[in-house]
Amino acid sequence: MSKTNDGAGKAGLLNGFLLNESTGYFQNQGVDVMAFDDFYPEGHQSGVSILMHGQRVATNGELRFEQTPGQWQPIPKRDKREVDASANTVTTWLSFPDESKHLSGFNPMIYPDFRLSYKITAKGRGPDIVVTADLDQPIPERFQGKVCFNMELFPGTLFGKPWIMDKKQGIFPEQPNGPTISLTPNYLYNGDYSTEESRNSEVKTDIKHLSGDNKGYNPIIADDIIAAPYAVGKRFTVRPDDPYSRFTIESKSVGTELKLYDGRMNHNNGWFVVSSEIPAGATANAIEWVITPSVIDGWTYGPIVQTSQVGYHSGQPKVAIIELDKRVTGREKPSLFKVTETGDEEVFTADGQEWGQFLRYNYVKFDFTGVKDEGLYKVRYGQAESSIFRIADDVYDRGVWQPVLEYFLPVQMCHMRVNEKYRVWHDLCHMDDAQMAPLNFNHIDGYAQGSSTLTKYKSGDVVPGLNIGGWHDAGDDDLRLGSQAGEIYILAMAYEAFGVDYDETAIDQETRIVEIHQPDGKNDILQQIEHGALSVVGAYEALGRPYRGIINRTLRQYVLLGDTSAMTDNVMGNEDDRWVFTEENPPAELTAAAQLACVYRALKGFNDELAGKSLAAARELFAVTDITRDTRLYKVADMTDRAKAAKLHAATELLLATGEDQYKDYILSQVDFIPGAIENVGWFIGRADKAIGDAGLSAAIRGALPALKESLAKQSAETPFGIPYRPYIWGAGWIIQRLGFQYYYLHKAYPDVFGPDLVYDALNFILGCHPGTDRMSFASGVGANNVTVAYGLNRADWSFIPGGVVSGTALIRPDYPELLVFPYLWQQVEYVLGGGSSNYMFLVLAAQQMLGAGADAAR
To answer: What gap in Å lies between CA 839 and CA 850, rounded to an integer?
Structure first.
């Protein structure tokens, strides 16, 4: 990023903070202050946020019920936001708490019997942002000292850096340091929901079970233990040593002080927090903070040169994406340099292609597709350079897709002990799976059990046969039908499409031991398909229907960091066993049928018994699932159309598995439905079209393809990255990978309509061509720069799992793309099953195949 005056520049009034009417936030050269553009406080992006010279440094400037709140503490509800450019203000009206978060089952907090309405006003005043809070009533005595105005400071760039509070100074520590203090938990309801009668009295989130058992530690109640503040005062300065990150907060309201807390003391994923308690009796101007960021005169963002962090096959398109500050009008001429033994050698230069603005940046594209000579390269634009990458026909042959099979999937394996030479990734776990979930019950993670278990088992019964197979999904280690069946499906499709034959791991289902980098003479991808099918099919046989999933029952288990074997005692029938949930969900059940039919084809000849059971389950689900029946607690508006598409998908996979006329006939009966649903069914129906060879079906499909092609082209043209990408709070990496996976089948079925480029572009997006400063591959351990701090089982160690693929660059609304180096932002750096890593692996294998990379590419 550009810096002036020998990296120091001058800070001062400059133009002052003015509202940009097109963006709705305050700007002063390279510093932006947003006020409630975003509203995701659990994910550390809400309230008043400060972006300084290309980096978000502070966020969540708003009222909370704790000095250092965690993910499940009460949050406000944003009622109205008003931008007044003439007054240079953003005013937001809020109410406390947002009870919908509790009622939806996603927040186990039982809220205070206190309701508060208030407004937060942010005003640009020269070099300052003045933030005030006005309340509709004073804070009751019993909540005084608890209701605060907080601002969270991103810890990842602060470790070892200085702060000043009045006349006290300090250094932000790597770890939270004592002493702790106790706050009275006077607003928490800890009612007894331990009996079935109390649980079933209404649909509710079970605070007792989600918070811990009756005998010991309760992490909700334990939130009254927080770190003593590092300092207390009226004026606080962050990073006084660095004009690019320095800002000052001064408390002006009567009776309020600033306190610097370490939120990691009671929540490992916490941030540093500056907090002011609401004074007793205060309403108008209860809080007034004056925030003064340092502004560097003449600072501009970038340039950032984005390329694949792995490199390119000689025959594929090669385009560098150059990200620029939109205020910069001049252009440099990009060049490609070959890195040789004697230095850099310029081999190609050309004018960049002006693309235009996307989000907050302008983009220029540099096409060097014509360069095909093998070697190491980098792209230079002015003083900015890309990472070094390869051009070679074997660029994807080693250490690119392979880590998914070598590391990520083995490490995620549930009901196993996973070793890697001297290292134990995790010990044998969850051998006590699982008990039937309570009725009329909302779990913290979105699972919901209705008024029936839908099985022969009663709530609390041990369901046999569930303690085998599957992978831990994401940070909460659950086994969700969509992720488990989805994972085996993508692996089976990859095996079928590319003939993957790779053996680097020993997997013993008898001893329950996995040895990474210990070949056992068996194809790893088939062993992984087998492992996932053991869970999905085993649950189907045990329950007589698909499971919704298996998940931990307590909040203490849910937030576990470290060895997953510590979550339960591996002894069946006690209160630490995980729960299994069921539901009637026609799209999910029929999608599982499709996936199991494909699994049958892959496992046939490897594990014939399990293959047969997979096919039997797929057949039965296709036959018995009523696409109109949905008894889930939370409904989806287009459920019937989704179910019809899923049944068509199941018929396609069953036809390819069996060749039976009943599935062909069903597909032909849907010829009127298919054209209108082509965006959802086009990617798989092409294989049925080829297998059936019916002129009427082919005409119906082909007639709908031009509109699908136009839609994809239009969406792809909205971004400089060549793929449909509409960023939201969560990173879009997984969505883009899934699109690339599905598009591959469009290309294979109808190459005259759909060219290959979207597959390459989706892969390049994951490997480094995406917005933001990071220049990282989303695939951990893959490429010159990659995500090495991720939300996996070892996130507390600020580490990663090779082959894991994170969600990727997220959007700080309205227009800031961000990928922070911080292990606890699930919306940016979480690993998942069911399409995260496996779809990425599929894309690499697809690129190899389309490029004719050789018979040994998938071996």
So the answer is: 16
Check residue 11 and report its DSSP letter.
Answer: B
DSSP readout, 384-406? EEPPPEEE-TTTTTTTTSHHIII
For 410, 557, 800, the CA distances from 568, given in Å and listed in that order, are 20, 8, 24
The answer to which of 34-43, 353-362, 457-466, 686-695 has the lowest mean pLDDT is: 34-43
Choose among 596, 696, 611: nearest CA to 653: 596
Q: What percent of the chain has pLDDT over 70?
A: 90
Residue 408 is given by DSSP the state I
Structural contact between residues 35 and 48, judged by C-beta atoms closer than 8 angstroms: yes
Q: pTM of this prediction?
A: 0.93
Kindly tell me if the per-residue pLDDT of 191 is higher than 70: no
What Cα–Cα distance (Å) separates residue 328 from each residue in 43, 331, 361, 724? 32, 8, 10, 26
- B/e letters for 770-807, b = 16+ CB within 10 Å, e = fewer, are bbbbbbbbbbbbbbbebbebbbbbbbeeeebbbbbbbb
Rg (CA), the chain: 28
pLDDT, tens digit (0-9, with 9 covering 90-100), for 632-654: 555 555 678 899 999 999 999 99
Instruction: Tell which residue, 232, 223, 226, 292, has the closest CA to residue 260.
Output: 232
Tokens, residue 627 = 């696409």
Please count the CA atoms within 13 angstroms of the CA of 105 that sit on its side-chain side: 15
Quick one: tokens of 398? 């080693």
- Residues 6+ positions from 817 with CB-CB distance below 8 Å: 359, 360, 727, 770, 771, 772, 809, 810, 811
> Do the beta carbons of residue 720 and residue 320 sit within 8 Å?
no
State both tokens at 260.
């610097």
What's the mean pLDDT in 566-588?
96
The confidence score (pLDDT) of residue 269 equals 95
Q: Where is 420: in which H helix or E strand?
A: strand 417-420
Q: What is the rounded distance in angstroms from the CA atom of residue 338 to the CA atom of residue 371?
A: 10
Q: pLDDT category, 101, cuts 50, 70, 90? A: low
Neighbours of 676 (CB within 10 A): 11
Residue 664 CB contacts under 8 Å (≥ 6 apart), including other chains:
655, 691, 692
pLDDT tens-digit map of 400-431:
999 999 999 999 999 999 999 999 999 999 99
Token digits for 302? Answer: 């970038």
Rounded distance between C-alpha atoms, residue 76 and residue 63, angstroms: 8
Order of strands, edge to edge, in the sheet holding 287-293? 77-84, 89-96, 116-125, 128-135, 287-293, 247-251, 235-238, 162-165, 168-171
Averaged pLDDT for residues 161-185: 92
Q: Which residues contact 635 (CB under 8 A, 6 or more apart)?
A: none
Q: For residues 497 and 693, give the distance between their C-alpha atoms in angstroms, rounded to a whole number.
A: 21
CA angle 264, 266, 271 (to 5 degrees): 25
The two tokens of residue 2 are 């550009």
In 820-829, which positions are buried (b, 16+ CB within 10 angstroms) versus exposed (e)? bbbbbbbbbb
Beta-strand relationship, 45-52 and 128-135: unpaired
CB–CB of 440/203 below 8 Å? yes
Helix (H) or strand (E) holding 181: strand 180-182
Rounded to whole angstroms, the Cα distance separating 143 from 681 reads: 55
> How is residue 211 written in tokens?
């918070």
φ/ψ of 790, rounded to 5, equals: -140, 165
